[in-house]
Amino acid sequence: MGKIYALLVGINEYPDTPWANLKGCRNDVAAARAVLEQRSGGRIEVRELHDDEATTEAVADAVRTHLGQAGSGDTALLWYAGHGTEYAAATPLELITEPTGRSQALCCTDGPLPDKRLGALLDGAAARGGHVVAVLDCCFSGGATREEAAQQAGHRESRARFLPPGPNAPAPSDAPSGSAHPGVRLRPEADAGACRDAAGPAPRPRHLLLAASRIDQRSTERLLPGPDGRSVHHGVFSHSLVTALRAAPPGVTARQLFAEAQAAVRRTQDGQHPSLWPQEPGGLADRPLLGGAAADPSPYLLREGPEGWEVDCGRAHGLSGDAGTEFSAAAGPVRVRAVLADRSLVDPAGWIPEPGSVHPVALSALALPPAAVVISAPPARAAAAALLAGRLDSPLLRTAEHGSAEADRAPLLLRLDLGSGQHAAVLRRDGIPYVDPLPLADPLPGRPDTLAETEADAARIAVCLAQLAQWHRIRDLSAGTSPLRGHVRVEIRPWDRPDGPPLAPDANGEIVLRYRQGAEPWVGVRLHNSGPRPLWCALISLNDRFGASTALFPGDFIGPGGSGHVWDGDPVRMVLPPSRPVRPGAFVRDWLTLLVAEGEMNTLPFHLTPWDPQQALRSAPPADALIRLTGGPGAGNRDALRVRPGTPIRWATTTLPVRTVVL
């Protein structure tokens, strides 16, 4: 295991604004140091900056010289507790990269440290290959800040960590040109005018952010119990994260720690919702907080929310509000009692989770009709067909007889023809292939349909069919007649005409992009909010290889009249996949599904790796692949958009098909 370099910054006293002094920030970093030293096994080197020591240059220098020591296998951790602020975005870069129209900054004792400058510093700390993590306990820290709000008798005092921007607010020159995303959410630098391949992977973020609140919220401190039972002032998020880290088993991922800390904050403080970035599966969030290899994440987690036990998926993920939806955890079943937009309220059945614990869960029953699979096979493959039918009993799939009422009524019909050769065909209702023929493993010489080969083929085919069903569930998401529908629209413009009108769909409802070989189209894509208030948006891109991802726009709040730009305004190069030769008549289809909501959503269920039948043949799927596809392995008025317990979050979806054709 590598070394851990920790920079802990706690600021209680602000000399120029004594009315804004805080009480819990130094307690936060002291508690963080204790638990980090407890879990690090002597691998940690800590540097602390308190109060008047924590000037902008001192913090910047400590990031460069202390955290910058982290090399490959090491971890660099910044834990900041103090005030923060926000100010109107002004520079061209800020106006593109700040969808809310506001920029954020940490409040050091001598002035603000803009998020873009801090982000560049953290990028520099990651340059030697270290695992870089930032924990920010301040308002707007999904972008960074604490404010006093004394409660009535019987309620604990709550104070927000916020300072309004003063005359020394950061000037545009404080923000380096390059690549900062709101809330110190950085991605690798991109050359000006660089063009990114829509078919390729998204740029990998360089550091992980665990923020105390959303980009549009303030975060709080209050009296909270310590390990010895005495109550002292702490930031609600720092206290929750330290508590989760203290109780967590070895190897727990940052995503799992964050899930418990977020739930604890929501149980404690109304109107404060911590934020994790980036959320991409298998990325920084799925590594242990203090370093280590990434784990496969569970798309769904069971946790204890303010209304009891909940799973972080709901109607916006394709669940129904009807009775019959269930999940399963390693310890037992979990039954759904109410499906909300962003989460489901549940009751563990026959077992009692430890209070405050987090559990991966899988979808085990769905109160919606599954896809119907009709299998046809010659007599020689009857055993293979029977084995496959047994594998298809899942929440997403059911076998059906050809011509049966179940097959006719199914929202999605998959016709599987095992044939007699070395390929299986997956056909639509009208007989058109869904995917390229699926190669079957060669049986042992003289032993056709040996059990081992039949089981391997059945596993591969079952995973393929489940992926098709899941892909259609994502593409066909609908909130019906939502009041949010139409408030945000997806706009695609040719890159050489950025000020021109957006491209309009043709008579078939598709955006058609045309190019000749060597002259593929470059486009700019933005999400524009014409509504009266900020809305959270994510753009789910689906392709005709049955892959899905939120890499284009992973999820952020867009302010009223504001725009969120795909890849922070870089152009998107629309190309054919490598397996599709560029010749006249060749084309590729994409679907851009815009998810709009009043609050953040779990986006992990919207990720599917494009289906590759040849790769599936070369490597047998893991035993739990089908399970993972269908659900995963085993106090003051500070926020105008806050959602109180029981208040439903409204949401909407819009899908825009795009077809790119070679002339």
From TrEMBL:
Pfam families, alphabetized: Peptidase_C14
InterPro entries (UniProt xref): Caspase-like_dom_sf, Metacaspase, Pept_C14_caspase
Annotated Low complexity bias: 171-183
Domain Peptidase C14 caspase stretches: 5-276
Basic and acidic residues composition-biased segments: 149-160
UniProt-listed Gene3D superfamilies: 3.40.50.1460
UniProt superkingdom: Bacteria
Protein name per UniProt: Caspase family protein
Region Disordered, annotated ranges: 149-205
